[in-house]
From TrEMBL:
Any one annotated GO CC term: endoplasmic reticulum
EC number(s) recorded for this UniProt protein: 2.3.1.51
GO molecular function, one term: 1-acylglycerol-3-phosphate O-acyltransferase activity
Record Pfam families: Acyltransferase
Claim: Cytoplasm is one of the keywords in the record: no
Upper taxonomic lineage: Eukaryota, Metazoa, Chordata, Craniata, Vertebrata
Top-level taxon: Eukaryota
Protein name (Swiss-Prot/TrEMBL): 1-acylglycerol-3-phosphate O-acyltransferase
């Protein structure tokens, strides 16, 4: 993880990025949890790396492993890669990671949207402040498989409402990349 942190600090310095973080203390939960985050551009990943809690691993799509230096940095940083084209393999990795979460008291960070952009092009680079809002934890104790659909909808609605609210706030340098984080 230190190699990813070094890369983020260097990138941040070179491009003059500043991060505005609200609610970071909410990520200081004792037990294992899943942290879900939206993903608008590469900049919000940089902002999220600033608040990555201890004992936290990230999950990324396998294709990112082959993106040159970024893929290498992610690999060396301990990111878990899943092959979204092979559901059985992805489910196996997720199940193993679930076991590790409980055994080793890990937090797992995921991006449930699956991608940052669907127009097939790179988003423009921006300079300025990245705003990150950490939401309250969503309790899952006692939930079963039957509760998954409702849990997903609850998290989605909470994140969407916050995202829309952040997006309406005045933007410094017109370069705010809203990021919403929820731990469950």
């Amino acid at each position: 993880l230190s190699i990813i942190s070094w890369f983020v600090r260097s990138f941040k310095y070179v491009y003059g990025l500043r991060f505005e973080v609200r609610g970071q203390k909410k990520l200081e939960v004792d037990g294992p949890c899943v942290i879900i985050s939206n993903h608008q551009s590469i900049l919000d990943m940089m902002g999220l790396m600033e608040i990555l809690p201890k004992r936290c691993v990230q999950i990324a799509k396998r294709e990112l492993l082959f993106t040159g230096p970024v893929g290498l940095i992610m690999y060396l940083g301990g990111v878990y890669f899943i092959n979204r084209q092979r559901a059985r393999t992805a489910m196996s990795v997720m199940a193993d990671l679930g076991d590790l979460m409980v055994k080793d008291n890990l937090k797992v960070w995921i991006y449930p949207e699956g991608t940052r952009n669907d127009n097939g092009d790179l988003l423009p680079f921006k300079k300025g402040t990245i705003r990150v809002q950490v939401l309250d934890a969503v309790p899952t104790r006692g939930l079963t498989d039957a509760d998954v659909t409702k849990l997903v909808d609850t998290c989605y609605q909470s994140m969407r409402n916050t995202f829309l609210q952040i997006s309406k706030m005045p933007q410094e340098n017109s370069a705010i990349e809203p990021g919403v984080v929820s731990a469950q």
